[in-house]
Structures
1.
Amino acid sequence: MCSARTCLAHWDSADLARIRCLSGARQNRWKGAGAGGKVPDPATAYRHSVRVPSHNEVGEMGTLHGASSVRTSDFSGGSAAFVVDARGLVSAWSPTAERLLGYETAEVVGRPVAELWPVIPWDAPQQLSQAFGAGTPGPTAVLTHRQGHPVPVTLAAYPVTSVVPGSEGTVILATAVSLPTADQDWLHHRERTAAGALRSSMEPADAPDHSAAWITRSYVPARGGTGANGSWADVIPLSSARLAFVVSDVPDSGMQATVCIGLIGAAVRALAELDLAPEEVLARLDDIVSRFTAGQGNKWSLPFVERLVGTTYLYAVYDPIARRCVMASAGHPPPAVADPDGSVHVPELPSNRPLGMGEPVFESLDLELAEGSTLLFYTGGLVRACGTDDAIAGLLSRAMRQSGPSIKDAWRVTVDTMTPLLEAEDDLALLVVRTRALSGDRVVTWELPGDPAAVAGIRSLVLQQLDQWDLGSLDFTTELIASELVTNAIRYGREPMQLRLIYDRMLICEVSDGSSTSPHIRRASATDEGGRGLFLVADCAQRWGVRYTNQGKTIWAEQALNTEATSERP
């Protein structure tokens, strides 16, 4: 049996190769066993052919090379015990083994022991007996818990010479031990490195450059523990030149926290594509987390998703045209807001409960922000370091005074000030945002009458506006998009109706009406007289979608300003 350091050193390459070989050999062994050559599930076939002995029977399985019997207390007491039959399959599993390694009996009985733990050599009981000294405590090995973390143990093998029929094999005792300090440091370093690498791959290189705001973002890892905890900040571009700001805190650390961030981050970006209101996004997230944890009894569920329960989340949407920011929180602290004149305050945001706690309704807050306002979004580490909202507001105020007009300097002052104050186990995600506003000459709005005959005049207004913006290359596609959306609103919507063009990094065409009827794109057949409107819009635009408001809905379509990409006629 190899030492702990040797086992760890070969964990990633040699043992994985051995798993593949063993798995392939056992699959070939079962091939052709069923009718028509169907390969049965090994665990199912095993349970049908071999009777699993009870705990008392294991205690009477025979002698250890003529010595005393294996005691039942060894099987159900402090040492974790399990039985491996002559074919290398697990045939019995003790409650202590379940507690130590996380697997339930149904999950391991009938499975190859070398597939579960490659560090246990298995070709025959004799080899295992020689490796572990026939009942004497063996060297330290590292087994893997069901949730993926290492479990250092000492192993002892007890070959059975007189057995209950059909239960030949070996009783293995696994006693948990502490690894030497050097090995513990190695394992911690390995987890820190893996979690940091995964987090870096998820983190964008820099905050997106956007006309709605100047943005800086940073992450300060914890000095102790695994180095990467559950703090996260993100910026998501939305339709109509809007931005979503996301800040969250997962109550976990290390690799599992990083994976949880990835799971919930993917869900948020998918919900953001639906253009839901912030309170609706949180309600959907809460439902997703509840569904994750409710499926823990399912063998296909991820073993660590219960750590998502208690996650705090803040989702805010900023509209640079209306200069309004709507935000909702699931137990997350509100941002600090600095007005252009230098005054700082922390708004009273309805906190609601964290995700997964059964909150049925989430409340939101609507703020009107002056152009040039600065918002500081943060995670729980800053709250524990500062203590109060007034202290956080004072921190932002000092950063604004020392940095001047540069938002990057404000961000740097904040990070430099707070990093030494963080507790060793606390990480910190910061998002510093300075709002911008789209000027009036970049946004044009027309009220629409309910008369289909007005569509021709609307097309003329659109073409005139494109000429003023020097966007003649987009005249054909924009005229088509506006015509189809306006006609659709007049025919199927209801007043009030309006058309809005937004000249930003994209050319955005929006048509709003008072109806909440959802349009659906489809491919019309050759004999259909209609049904091609949204299909043409989707074909001409780079992106299109629908968002719903309290007054109705808005259908929008975005076109790239690249003339080479938009000059082709459909």
2.
Amino acid sequence: MIDYYAHVAVQDQLRVQVGAAGGVSPSEQARLQELVDSASSEEGAALTGLFVDQVLAQAASDGVEASLLESAGALWKRGGALYDGVGEVRKAVEEAVSAPDAPGAVDAFNGAMSRMVDLLRDAKRLDSEIQQLRRELRPLKHLPPHPRQSDLPLSAWGYGDTFLARRGAAFTRALFDRAGGDSAATALAVGALTAYAGNVTGSAYLGHGVGGPRRSHRFRDRLARNAVGSWCAGQFAVPGPGALADKLRSQVPASGGPNPSPMAQFLAQALQDAYDPAQTPPLPDIDLGLRRVLRHLELYEVIRRPELPLPLTGTLGAVVSATSNGGLPQSQEPLLYPQSGGGTVSSGGEVTGADTTDQTSDNGGSCGWAGLIVFLLVFSIACVVGLIEEGDCTAGVRDVWDALVGGDEPEPTQVTAEGLTALAQSPVGPQIAHRLFEAQLGLWQAADQAFNYLALVGLIPPDDLLLTSPLYGQFLTLPPRELYPLQEDPMAEKTYGFDPSTPPEHPLQQASPFGSGDDPSVFVVGKAPEFALDLLLRIVREEPEAQNLDADADRGYLHPCWTTGSGGSVHDDPVPVQVLGYNET
């Protein structure tokens, strides 16, 4: 299964290929163009079809991932408010120190000092909730084992896994058969067909990079899927998650309605046409899946790395530069503008910060940023108090330390008009402004680490900055892959950042037709739209399908849907692969 962004990129490339299609009659060309035009004019319906795999997976899930992402989004908003608050304090202090005689300057300065203490209270509450979220994320329970890997019967699978492993071509045919002349239904059918083509080819690309299918490498697969999707978003100018959510929103009903939405009913009818209900799990609540997908996209828009704060410039910056080494003491080692590389793979061969630290501990890993937020604010307030009262940052820190250990909060410091003027005329005022810049930069670093962590555990896709990291870059150029697939790694929660070192799973298969060094464009521009166009042509020509292909590419490129048969297990050597006929579920 590929990512939202990769699906959209494939659909855009299908439009290009339809426009340049050769070997078709004028009437066929006109019909093909009519079909892709319907997806352009009914964007919400087309996205519903394009994301149907995600919709069904979310509808059938236990809701753990949706809940964790919701919690992360709420905390991110509060953290963003904290970051912005420190920025506003900075601005007020800089303006007051630059013009101490301006009307309201004293009140603005004192108000900023009081607000710093309020922000500290907010940070303490935020800290405990961040730690709780971390405890919930660390076991990676939002990425549960695949039912095939657990040898469960098909009837006990989640519907999302069932959908990817069975009758994908038959489902797309059922959609077109039911669409008739309805433009929205046709757009959904085109989207679903494109998603099927994208999954069949793109999942082979993912498996090639990962070393095996999602079934046996679920943590590594999620990392790869998100990396490839983010790469596609940038490479093919895919709309951002907020824009995709806006396009999809018209198709998503509010919760609590008495009846399924029209799109949910349409999808349910096609699923009932394609799948044998005696062998498959019950249909999930499709509208619930739609709401979760919409919320996913909305929260991806929320959880973004903040902009770096700007350092002091002009007169204030010049004073700080002149006095920081020879005048007033530094509060800490200078914080440099960081370059995030997602440094989350240790030299010991483990993915640090995900699930490698002691499960009973709340320290370690990449979540030191939680306590860092509170420490930064306490340290900054203490330093400012020391500078104002004694001209010495260190003295303020020493005075406040006992209060910090005891859980008490420092009192906000206040100045008179004469005191503010004195601060402005000495190096102390600029140094106070500089300490606040350091605090805001430290909060940025905490947000940077938090973003990296959420991407590392697969809850959000990496951004452009993280894609420059080898951790994600390894999936953007394919390695040589002589043995495929590789068996599940029993230590995967600690090692999923690295290529598996496990033995191959027999029978061996071709991972993909793609070459070493190929990037995701080999399926986005080439194989996926070609495959989708071929499917559309067969539908236009009313030619029958002969085979349903595994949309997870579980056994490699263009492998048919399969089962282990009665009594067989995916843990047998070799795996007893039994290919399913077109009409078999």
3.
Amino acid sequence: MRGSSGLGPGSRAGARSARAHALAVLRVRSTVLALALLPAAAAVILWTGRTTGQFGPSWETARWSVSGFAVAVLGCAAVAGLAISRGRPAVSPTVPVEEHAAPDLHALVRDLADRLEVPAPSAIALTPDCDSWLEDRTHARAGGARGAAPVLVIGSPFLWWMRVAELRALLAPVVAGTGPSAHPDIAAARRVVRGLDAAVANAERPAGPCSGDPAADGPGAPAARVPGALARAVRGCVAPLRRAVHRAVGPIARLMLRAAGPHAAAMEQGVAAAAADRAQAVDQGLRVAAQEQVGLAYAGWDRLLTRVALPAWRLGLWPTRLDAGVVSALTELSRRDRLASGFTSRLGERPACDLLKEPGSTDGAVSLLAARLFLGPRPPVPTAHGAVPEWTPVDWAAYPEEVVDRIWRAEAARLFAALDALGPPEPVGASRSAASAAAPASAAPASAVPVGRRLPESAFAPPPGGSGSPSGAPAGEAGSEWAGPTLARVHDRFAAAGGTDALAARISAEVAREEAASAPGGLGASPGAEPQPGTGGAHLAPLAPMGLPLQPPRSGKELLADHVTAAVCCAAVDTAGAVPGLDWLDGPALYIDGERAGELPSLVLALVEDGEAVGLRDWLAAAGVRPEKPVRLV
């Protein structure tokens, strides 16, 4: 390994440990191979004994039986070895960064490798994740023609948030890992583990549509994929055979992986320890600061994806500048967090994204990849006439109109559709009389409005001189302004006993139905989702993409609060001159006179959960929102 003379004691110890465990992994392979050769060795002995006269005619039956068994075992071993060696482990979906597109970045990495006295990575790629690693992709190259050096995968948020010196310090221990990776024993052990992992994955992969089936190719498939009936028939016969082989090899690979797994994990720990020790002498003073930026970047990136990007993705839109958005999100986080108050002073230094020739196009490619990682290659949105949905780009300037306003209008429409389905509520007095007749006061149903916290009848009442319905009158029997999509109708439902629970249950069922229809392939998958080329059949929409948790399931009351908030925001936009906006950390937001209405969600939640309407009533009056005016739903 190059530069071994410059290794410190910790690096040498880590390298020795990694090599020892790599040999242990290779011994597992050798042991299985030896077991497969035992019957053949026994057959050779029996046939040799026949020529020497030591095993006479009485051994003839045993000789042929052992020979047949040896041939069968060797055949199975050859098939299993071929399946394992030809297995294509899943490759992390990334955006490649060629040297002509980022010469300064490649020069920085090469200079870092020279200082660390290790081989330079064979390529650089970006991932929409707050992490960086080395990934060996020799199995994806024709014969490994480009050598054994791994690919350096860099988290794209680091390039936009970190400064050049910080990125260099952060990548030092990662690039140092190419040194142990070049050792032949470690490289061979990794190939064994990757092959076993791919074999297990192939065995566990459910059988999909046959590749020879014209329906599987789809109506838009190019003619080259459907060369003729004979080729389709051949593929249709080969596919089941291939699946059968993978399922037969799976248990063997699983046993080998279970035996080699602890040694493989210890080998990687030794490699990491050797790389970290080797990188101690490079930019040591900046490494602590760089690690602090990693934690801050992860926090801002998490909130940007789950609160800002995810609402757009669910509409089939993908923000084209996620990495540029993370800078705004982290700057806002630094402004709000006292512990991060000094981080904004770094923004005067050169950002690492300047190492790219065209940061905008690279940001766009990474942003689209992030959308596909979360929800699949196709957006989960219905289309007319069965057309295949496609991702639609949206920039940050259009986000409030294209995303925020559409979400509010859609949720408000769902709220008023639920009100229409439930029908007009009973008068408050009639509801209380019915409840009293059905059960004693001490056993009042939980859905009834709590005593002493009944909603004021004037909570959403129209201003003096309006033509609104008298308090307590059914909405369907009032004037036209009360029959339409107005906040006054919402008041009638909240004022009725049990109205909140029925409304929350109906909205929850409708939301669940829409989510199930948009993702029939499972959570996070979308219609037409398929693995990207070079991913080894890996799913692009895991349950926890990029290490970020999906939004937890919301209760019926939380969903109802979101829908009521959306209706209030629509009413504020329509009648009070408010505008939809974007908060970099919290997502969709309402702005009135340039100020964010951050208190609105808590006021609506108090109304939904506790029946407390005074705060929301005062807010509506102060904002100039007119509850009797219809809300525009389209």
